[in-house]
Design brief:
Elements: H1 5-18, E1 32-33, H2 37-47, H3 51-62, E2 63-64, H4 80-90, E3 92-93, E4 111-112, H5 123-135, H6 139-156, H7 176-180, H8 188-205, E5 216-218, E6 221-223, E7 229-231, H9 245-253, H10 259-272, E8 295-296, H11 298-317, H12 321-342, E9 343-344, E10 349-350, E11 353-354, E12 359-360, H13 370-374, H14 379-393, E13 394-395, E14 398-399, E15 414-416, H15 417-429, H16 433-454, E16 460-462, E17 467-468, H17 481-498
Antiparallel strand pairs: 1-2, 3-4, 5-6, 6-7, 8-11, 9-10, 11-12, 13-14, 15-16, 16-17
Helix pairs in contact: 1-2, 5-6, 5-17, 6-8, 8-11, 9-10, 11-12, 15-16, 15-17
Length: 499
C-alpha cells in the first residue's frame, strides 16, 4: 500500500504538525509535494529551518497547497430541493488522479465529495449522499461511485475511511451492500463483480476469525465467552492520525496507559464515523479515557448482518447455493448474538457491549435504532425502542445523537443527517410512523431554517438550541453531501405521503 505523508516526510511532518503550522491538521497531509520526497528530505536535513516562519517558507517552496474548500454556494431564490439538485454538480469530482507523491488515492470514475475541508470521497458518507442522487435521477453518478468503491476493494482489500493514503489503515461503517441496492444496473457481470467485492470486504472485517479463542479479539473480530462472533471498530496502526497529529499526541499525553493503545482507540473511533463521542469514553469529560476497541458496537454489527444477508441473496440469484447458505447462517448467528448482547431489556433499548468487562455501555444513543433499520428487532423490542427514543432522544430539532452534552461533536447538542435517516427508516419498518414523521419533520425544519438564514447546508446542526453546531476537531463544514442526500430522501417521502 502507498505510504502516508507521515511515513514519507518523517520529522519534517512531525515538526509541521506539532507546531500547528496550519490551522487545520488536515492541510499539510493533503498538500502536493513538488518533487520527490527523498529530495525534499535531503533539503530538510541540509537546511533544518528554525522557527515557524522559516519552516513555513520551506513548506511553501516544496509543497503545493490543497485546493480551497468546496463551499455550498448560497442561492436565496431556490427552494432547498432545487438548491440541492443544482449543488450536486458543484460537489462532483471527475477524477482524483493525484501526483506521484500525493496522499490522494486515484479513482477511475466521477464521484461526489462531502464539501468543505473534505475534498475526497468518504465511505459511509457516500451512502446517504447516494440516496439523494437516486431521488434526483443522477443514476450515472450512483453507478460510478459504486465502481469507485469496488475498485478500492480490488486494489486494497477494503474501502478506506476516505481516499487518502493516510486513511488506508482503517475503513468506515460498511454500507456497500446498501449502496448496491440503489443501483439500477441489471447486468449479471456487474452483479458478479460487486458480489465478489462484498465478499472480499467481508473477509477484511472477519480477518483472524478462525484462529481466535474465546473470549478474545483479533483485528476487527471479537469472539465472546459463549463462542459467538461479533465485530468491533479497529485500526491497523497505533500511531497518531496524520490528519490530527498534534491533537492525538496531546490526548495521549493526558492518558494513564500506553500511548499506542490510546492512538489505536482514537483511530478506531475515527473508523466508526463517530469521532468523537461519549459513546467511546469511560469518562465523558475526558477524551484520554477513550476505549473504542473494548466495545462491540451495535450499529457496526447490524450493517455486517445486512451485508451478509445481501451476499446470501445475490449468491442465490447467481446460482451459488453453497455460498448463499453459508452467509445466511452467518447472518442468522450474528442476529442472535446482537439480540443476546446488545438488547438491554431493563432499559428498553439496544446499545453497545463492553466485551472485556462483559456489560452494556451506559446511555441511550441513536445507534440503538440500527436493529430496527436492519430488521433484527422483534416487534416488542421495536415498540420499546420507539418509546425510549421519544422519551430520551427526541429533541426540538430532530433525533439526539446521545443524551450527554460534551465538547465532542457526536454528542448532544449536535444532530447528524445519517442518524436521522437510520431512525426514520427503522421506525417506519416497524410501523411507528408517527414518531418517524416527528423526527423527519423536526429535522427538515432545522435544516430549512438554517438554509433560509444562510442559503447553505451544513455537516451537522445544533438540534437543541437552533444555532450553528460546534464541538470536535474542526469547524462545522458547508456542502454537505450527506445532509443533501438525507434532506432529498425525506422530502421525497413527505411528498409521497401528501399525494
Amino acid at each position: 500500500m502507498p505510504p502516508g505523508p507521515d511515513e514519507l516526510f518523517g520529522d519534517l511532518f512531525v515538526a509541521v504538525q506539532q507546531r500547528r503550522l496550519f490551522g487545520d491538521g488536515k492541510t499539510f497531509p493533503d498538500m502536493e509535494p513538488r518533487r520527490a520526497p527523498a529530495d525534499i528530505m535531503a533539503a530538510w536535513d541540509a537546511q533544518r529551518p528554525q522557527g515557524d516562519d522559516e519552516l513555513r517558507a520551506f513548506v511553501e517552496r516544496n509543497f503545493d497547497p490543497p485546493p480551497p474548500p468546496r463551499l455550498d454556494p448560497p442561492d436565496d431564490q431556490a427552494s432547498i430541493g432545487d438548491h440541492i439538485a443544482a449543488l450536486w454538480d458543484d460537489l462532483v469530482v471527475t477524477a482524483q488522479p493525484g501526483g506521484p507523491w500525493s496522499s490522494a488515492l486515484p479513482l477511475p470514475s466521477p464521484y461526489v465529495i462531502p464539501g468543505g475541508r473534505f475534498r475526497e470521497i468518504y465511505y459511509w458518507d457516500s451512502y446517504f449522499t447516494m440516496l439523494g442522487l437516486a431521488i434526483d435521477g443522477r443514476d450515472a453518478l450512483v453507478e460510478s461511485m459504486l465502481d469507485n468503491f469496488v475498485s478500492l476493494i480490488e486494489r486494497y482489500g477494503h474501502i478506506p475511511n476516505g481516499t487518502r493514503s493516510y486513511f488506508l489503515s482503517r475503513s468506515q461503517p460498511p454500507f456497500l451492500a446498501l449502496m448496491t441496492q440503489l443501483s439500477r444496473d441489471p447486468a449479471p457481470d456487474v452483479h458478479r463483480r460487486r458480489l465478489a467485492a462484498l465478499r472480499r470486504e467481508h473477509d477484511y472485517w472477519m480477518q483472524g476469525e478462525n484462529h481466535l479463542a474465546a473470549p478474545g479479539a483479533s483485528a476487527h473480530v471479537v469472539r465472546l465467552s459463549d463462542d459467538a462472533v461479533l465485530n468491533r471498530y479497529w485500526d491497523a496502526s497505533d500511531t497518531p492520525r496524520p490528519e490530527a497529529y498534534a491533537e492525538d499526541v496531546a490526548v495521549a499525553a493526558g492518558a494513564d496507559r500506553p500511548t499506542a493503545d490510546v492512538y489505536r482507540d482514537l483511530r478506531a473511533a475515527a473508523e466508526s464515523g463517530w469521532d468523537f463521542s461519549s459513546r467511546w469514553l469511560r469518562d465523558a469529560a475526558s477524551l484520554a479515557t477513550i476505549d473504542t476497541c473494548a466495545i462491540v458496537p451495535v450499529d457496526l454489527n447490524c450493517l455486517l448482518y445486512l451485508s451478509e444477508r445481501h451476499i446470501a441473496e445475490e449468491s442465490a440469484a447467481l446460482g451459488d447455493a453453497t455460498t448463499a447458505a453459508d452467509y445466511r447462517r452467518r447472518a442468522d448467528q450474528r442476529a442472535a448474538a446482537i439480540l443476546h448482547y446488545c438488547w438491554i431489556a431493563e432499559e428498553r433499548r439496544f446499545g453497545d457491549w463492553h466485551w472485556i468487562e462483559r456489560r452494556p455501555t451506559a446511555g441511550a444513543t441513536a445507534a440503538g435504532l440500527y436493529p430496527l433499520f436492519a430488521g433484527i428487532a422483534t416487534p416488542e423490542q421495536a415498540a420499546d425502542v420507539a418509546r425510549t427514543a421519544e422519551r430520551d432522544l427526541l429533541a426540538p430539532g430532530g433525533l439526539r445523537t446521545t443524551t450527554v452534552e460534551t465538547a465532542q461533536q457526536w454528542d448532544a447538542p449536535n444532530g447528524w443527517a445519517p442518524l436521522q435517516w437510520i431512525a426514520v427508516a427503522g421506525l417506519r419498518r416497524y410501523g411507528h410512523d408517527a414518531l418517524a414523521d416527528m423526527i423527519a419533520d423536526r429535522w427538515l425544519s432545522t435544516v430549512e431554517a438554517f438554509y433560509d438564514q444562510t442559503g447553505a447546508l451544513f455537516e451537522k446542526y445544533d438540534i437543541e438550541h437552533g444555532r450553528p453546531a460546534s464541538g470536535g476537531e474542526y469547524p462545522n463544514q458547508q456542502g454537505f453531501g450527506w445532509t443533501n442526500g438525507v434532506v432529498k430522501a425525506l422530502l421525497a417521502e413527505r411528498d409521497k405521503q401528501r399525494r
